[in-house]
């Protein structure tokens, strides 16, 4: 399938002088999975550009690949950044030439994955989070098989999946019924935390590989300090509503951020001991969906559902609009320039 | 003759759906013969050649009407549906080719674009210019088509991909949006379609008896039956069309599809006729008018409809009934991703049909998160257009968790989101559409008991009862019963808890529709409805007296419980959360068959449907991929045997 390419120019920063300095002249490329169609329903004409965006050297956001409203996540092969995998409503859609051509690599029996993750230490292996479980490819998306031993027959709705960056085949999955850990490439799983609704996101600290955070619908925000084996709820963050996204700041070990629809964004600058709401300067905090930190600049990004995303260069104390007007950023991704 | 009708809410909805396919009409519904004309005769046409002649005449009406809507000076009027019609009729072929090339510069996305494109590809195979055909083929390479997330999406998507891949075999993955070769596309599509047919013929249909989505199954299945080269897929398509029409025939009252429905909409749930389903009744049975614009999608079916002949046995089920009957069916919920012990919940559907009215239900709970309709009494009217001929109650729940059960989405957006996607009432307290996990239903013939046990804090904490603008003699009786008459049907409605009346529909553009809403703001609640034919009583007063005399015991605490001796003499005992009993015998849902009744019979898991009317029998057997017609020995007193 040939690609479509267009350029989406981000709205210029309006409140933060010098904010655009945090551009791509540093060590990582930045990618977004974004849906821009307001109230799109299946079959409707696409009138805006959705799907994948990448930040250009000028700090603009350039659309590439198919114009497709529901690309939820992206993961790269570290050996070759032209090989990447996306989780879409159709299944896993992947490219091996940087987005020139694409293939839906899953079949009808795997649908609507919400996350995809390449094992950085064994990049032929790719993990897919499905609404009815977990699938794995051991041949770069050539074939997919279900690997669900140890998952419950029901309760295995999987929203998020992450591979431990320090060990091949060590994988954490956020499911309806909790967090599951595999240490053998998904040959088997064991529950390491319980949930009554859905675990919404998992993140591994870029500073300490044993430190993990998880957001959930009903259990608040969870932390593990032993590589995901044991989890406990972080105090000071409510369990009343769902939390959707959490991030570490790769530039400051003790800075974390978390967001939820009803809460907006909260940050901690002491490794999760205390938390502060950082919604001042945002047009509204309701609809908070994704947070992320630029690994080069430490800039904090924050998405509001269908209202684009905002940036802060002082870790949430002030905000400016960054881009994707009217859109939802389903995921942010960064990939090191050096390994291409 | 009727005059041109103004656009109804359903017309607006249909127009919205049409907009998905880029269909543009200069104005709505003028000179659409059967929509504006007199009500069709309900007389049975005995001779096959006369039936066929009438069927073809109806098809031609659709084609001629749609063709006549094209303004050659306005290319927008030559949309995909019009192109299909023009290709069938062999008209304006150069214009069609030019228009196809133009339209393919900016293809649509997803199944609602794919199946019209397939229709144009096949109908234009020998009629469109090579350039037009090439542009159509190229469109299947350049836009990543969205598969969607419902069974109707997938039926359309995979049928379309299947047929296009068959039309263009041996082509490389680089030439398809999927990145897969023609053969890979074909294998995947066939795999899914057979999987879906297996589900439908063993566990029951998912989006069962839908008032609008019936088209999204009928059209692709007819396309398969017509165009598939593989004889297996061709006969499977044909058998599914028969299967769907047999179910439709048994579920319609003079062509009008009533509840229960896995999916309907805010208009059709009350104006029962106003639905795409009525297009299929009109086309196949000829017993009710078609909706405006033939339901929009009906054009695509009509373009291929001459390749199908409705079996007489199905025609007679719809048209030729002289007995009351009960039909019980097993259906299935939409796929449950989470918050459930099962992938698919079984749905136990009861359908009681009489001359003057029909009563239908399933046992309650959620089959589809937004558009399900659990039960109703629908009465016959001479002309159903514009008539809200139904009565029911519901718990108008709005729940993110319920939707998360069925959608792979986050909770916070969903309740608002669906209201922007053609389901405007979802989060409204006064909606009349939807199912609730806090509703349980027992039906015995023309008696329905619906019980509600709503936990505090649920959105919303009341039940709604629907009282149509078309009811007559509405009487709030001191006994606690509410009496009314709809057509030739007497109705008794018993609210189990205090209520007030409301009249507004906050989600609707036309808020004052003349209907009334019974609002009962009590968590432990229920409704009893008993229907009867007016002809059974000397007067309405006699009916009321008979109802008042029926033994009835109601207890709401701690759990809603009803014991009621129905007008038919059956003792119904029903406690919320427990299996009900009829005359002391527990209702055993585990023994429910896929179909059981005088007309349709199938064992659960069998893949085999026996369709019977009088001496006529057709067996659809998906195990052997065979259709067998037989004439049975005549039995005296056979249900519906008047021929």
Give an overview in words:
- Chain A is mostly beta strands and 340 residues long.
- Chain A has strands at 5-8, 28-35, 51-55, 61-64, 71-77, 80-88, 91-95, 103-104, 115-118, 126-130, 133-137, 145-146, 158-163, 171-175, 178-182, 190-194, 199-204, 212-216, 221-224, 232-233, 245-248, 256-260, 264-268, 276-277, 288-293, 300-304, 309-312, 320-323, 328-336.
- In chain A, the strands form seven sheets. In chain A, strands 1-4-3-2-29 form a five-stranded antiparallel beta sheet, with no helix packed on it. In chain A, strands 5-6-7-8 form a four-stranded antiparallel beta sheet, with no helix packed on it.
- The two termini of chain A are 23 Å apart.
- Residues 2-25 of chain A have low confidence and may be disordered.
- The longest helix of chain B is centred in the N-terminal third of the chain and has 21 residues, at 48-68.
- Chain B is built from 17 helices and 26 strands.
- In chain B, the strands form five sheets. Chain B has a nine-stranded antiparallel beta sheet with strand order 14-15-10-7-6-5-4-3-22, with no helix packed on it.
- Residues 1-29 and 639-643 of chain B have low confidence and may be disordered.
- Chain B is globular and about 75 Å long.
- At the A-B interface, β8 of A face α6, α8, α9 and α16 of B.
């Amino acid at each position: 399938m040939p690609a479509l390419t267009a350029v989406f120019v981000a709205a210029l920063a309006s409140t933060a002088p010098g904010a655009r300095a945090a551009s791509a002249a540093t060590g990582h490329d930045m990618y977004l999975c974004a849906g821009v169609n307001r109230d799109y329903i299946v079959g409707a004409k696409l009138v805006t550009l959705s799907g994948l965006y990448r930040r250009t050297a000028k700090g603009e956001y350039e659309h590439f690949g198919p114009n497709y409203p529901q690309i939820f996540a992206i993961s790269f092969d570290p050996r070759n950044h032209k090989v990447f995998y996306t989780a879409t409503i159709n299944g896993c859609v992947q490219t091996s030439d940087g987005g020139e051509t694409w293939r839906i690599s899953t079949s009808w029996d795997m649908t609507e994955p919400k996350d995809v993750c390449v094992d950085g230490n064994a990049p032929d292996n790719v993990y897919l989070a499905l609404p009815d479980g977990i699938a794995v490819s051991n041949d770069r998306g050539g074939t997919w098989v279900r690997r669900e031993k140890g998952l419950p027959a029901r309760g295995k709705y999987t929203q998020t999946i992450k591979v431990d960056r320090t060990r091949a085949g060590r994988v954490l999955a956020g499911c309806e019924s909790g967090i599951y850990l595999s240490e053998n490439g998904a040959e088997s799983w064991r529950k390491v935390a319980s949930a009554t609704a859905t675990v919404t996101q998992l993140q591994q600290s870029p500073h300490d590989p044993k430190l993990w955070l998880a957001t959930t619908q009903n259990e608040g925000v969870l932390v593990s300090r032993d590589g995901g084996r044991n989890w406990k709820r972080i105090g000071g963050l409510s369990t009343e509503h769902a939390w959707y996204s959490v991030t570490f700041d790769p530039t400051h070990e003790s800075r974390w951020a978390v967001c939820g629809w009803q809460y907006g964004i909260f940050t901690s600058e002491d490794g999760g001991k205390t938390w502060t709401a950082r919604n001042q300067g945002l047009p509204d905090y309701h609809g908070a969906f994704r947070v992320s930190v630029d690994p080069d600049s430490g800039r904090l990004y924050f998405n509001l559902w269908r209202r684009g995303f905002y940036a802060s260069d002082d870790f949430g104390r002030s905000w400016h609009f960054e881009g994707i007007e009217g859109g939802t950023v389903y995921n942010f991704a960064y990939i090191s320039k050096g390994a291409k | 003759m009727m005059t041109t009708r103004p656009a109804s809410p359903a017309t607006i909805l249909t127009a919205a759906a049409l907009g998905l396919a880029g269909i543009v009409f200069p104005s709505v519904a003028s000179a659409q013969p059967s929509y504006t004309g007199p009500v069709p005769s309900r007389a049975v046409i005995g001779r096959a050649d006369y039936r066929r002649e009438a069927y073809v005449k109806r098809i031609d009406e659709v084609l001629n009407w749609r063709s006549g809507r094209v303004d050659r000076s306005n290319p927008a009027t030559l949309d995909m549906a019009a192109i299909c019609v023009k290709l069938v009729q062999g008209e304006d072929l150069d214009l069609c080719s030019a228009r196809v090339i133009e339209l393919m510069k900016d293809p649509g996305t997803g199944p609602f674009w794919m199946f019209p494109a397939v229709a144009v590809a096949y109908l234009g195979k020998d009629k469109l210019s090579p350039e037009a055909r090439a542009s159509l083929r190229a469109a299947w390479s350049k836009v990543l088509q969205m598969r969607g997330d419902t069974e109707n999406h997938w039926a359309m998507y995979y049928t379309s991909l299947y047929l296009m891949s068959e039309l263009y075999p041996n082509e490389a993955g680089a030439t398809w949006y999927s990145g897969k070769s023609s053969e890979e596309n074909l294998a995947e599509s066939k795999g899914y379609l057979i999987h879906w047919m297996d589900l439908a013929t063993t566990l029951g249909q998912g989006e069962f008896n839908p008032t609008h989505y019936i088209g999204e199954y009928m059209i692709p299945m007819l396309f398969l039956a017509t165009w598939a080269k593989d004889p297996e897929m061709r006969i499977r398509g044909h058998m599914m069309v028969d299967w769907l029409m047999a179910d439709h025939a048994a579920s319609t009252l003079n062509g009008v599809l009533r509840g229960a429905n896995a999916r309907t909409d805010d208009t059709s749930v009350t104006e029962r006729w106003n639905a795409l389903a009525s297009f299929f009744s009109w086309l196949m049975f000829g017993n009710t008018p078609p909706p405006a614009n033939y339901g929009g999608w009906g054009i695509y079916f009509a373009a291929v409809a001459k390749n199908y002949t409705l079996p007489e046995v199905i025609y007679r089920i719809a048209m030729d009934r002289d007995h009351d009957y009960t039909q019980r069916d097993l259906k299935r919920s939409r796929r449950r991703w989470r918050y459930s012990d099962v992938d698919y919940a079984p749905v136990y559907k009861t359908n009681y049909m009489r001359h003057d009215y029909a009563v239908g239900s399933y046992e309650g709970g959620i089959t589809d998160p937004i558009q399900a309709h659990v039960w109703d009494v629908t009465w016959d009217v001479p002309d159903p257009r514009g008539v809200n001929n139904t009565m029911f109650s519901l718990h108008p729940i709005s729940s993110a968790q319920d939707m998360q059960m069925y959608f792979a989405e986050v909770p916070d957006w969903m309740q608002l989101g669906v209201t922007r996607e053609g389901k405007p009432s979802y989060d409204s307290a006064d909606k009349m559409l939807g199912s609730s996990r806090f509703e349980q239903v027992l039906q015995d013939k023309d008696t329905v008991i619906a019980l509600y046990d709503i936990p505090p804090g649920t959105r919303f904490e009341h039940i709604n009862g629907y009282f149509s603008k078309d009811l007559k003699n509405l009487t709030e009786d001191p006994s606690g019963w509410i009496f009314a008459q709809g057509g030739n049907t007497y109705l008794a409605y018993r609210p189990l808890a205090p209520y007030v009346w409301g009249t507004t529909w906050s989600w609707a553009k036309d808020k004052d529709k003349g209907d009334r809403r019974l609002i009962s703001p009590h968590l432990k609640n229920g409704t009893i409805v008993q229907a009867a034919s007016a002809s059974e009583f000397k007067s309405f007063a006699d009916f009321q007296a008979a109802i008042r005399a029926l033994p009835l015991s109601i207890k709401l605490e701690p759990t809603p419980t009803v014991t009621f001796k129905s007008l038919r003499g059956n003792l119904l005992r029903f406690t919320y959360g427990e299996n009900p009993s009829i005359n002391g015998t527990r209702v055993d849902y585990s023994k429910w068959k896929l179909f059981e009744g005088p007309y349709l019979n199938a064992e659960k898991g069998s893949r085999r449907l026996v369709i019977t009317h009088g001496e006529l029998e057709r067996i659809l057997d998906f195990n052997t991929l065979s259709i067998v017609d037989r004439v049975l020995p005549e039995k005296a007193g056979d249900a519906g045997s008047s021929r």
